[in-house]
Amino acid sequence: MFGTDGRLAAKQEGVDSATARQIHRDYLSFRIDGNDCYVINEGKNPTEYNGDSFPQGEEQLLSNGDRITLGDSAATVQVQIDN
């Protein structure tokens, strides 16, 4: 699960508290299936996956370089896959 740690990181990078608060405790979860990793949007606030809407409850297969934007641009997570 990803959330609170993202909120703290956003605040450390200078994101104002009200915006950082959009990243709630349980925002993203992950699922592994064989060699594939999926991200599930658990969040209620606006979320984007590679610039497109990523609704709550939706799941996406992760690839190297994918970008997930949390809240109203409170933080962006870029996927880096290490082999």
Alpha-beta classification:
alpha+beta
Mean pLDDT: 88
Give me the number of helical elements.
2
Give the N-terminus to C-terminus distance in angstroms.
22 Å
Give unreliable regions as ranges: none
Any idea of the CATH topology?
A: Tumour Suppressor Smad4
What shape does the CA trace take?
globular
Largest sheet: 4 strands, antiparallel
Q: Could you name the CATH class?
A: Mainly Beta
Share in β-strands: 35-45%
**What is the CATH architecture term?**
Sandwich
Layout of helices and strands, plus pairs?
Blueprint: E1 2-3, H1 4-12, H2 17-20, E2 26-33, E3 36-41, E4 47-49, E5 52-53, E6 59-61, E7 67-70, E8 75-78
Plain-language structure description:
- The chain has helices spanning 4-12, 17-20, and strands at residues 2-3, 26-33, 36-41, 47-49, 52-53, 59-61, 67-70, 75-78.
- The protein is an alpha+beta fold and 83 residues long.
- It has a four-stranded antiparallel sheet. It has a four-stranded antiparallel sheet with strand order 5-4-7-8, covered by helices on one side.
- Helices cover 16% and strands 39% of the residues.
- The chain has a single domain (2-78), classed as Sandwich (Tumour Suppressor Smad4), CATH 2.60.200.
- The two termini are 22 Å apart.
- The chain has two helices and eight strands; from the N terminus they run βααβββββββ.
- The longest helix has 9 residues, at 4-12.
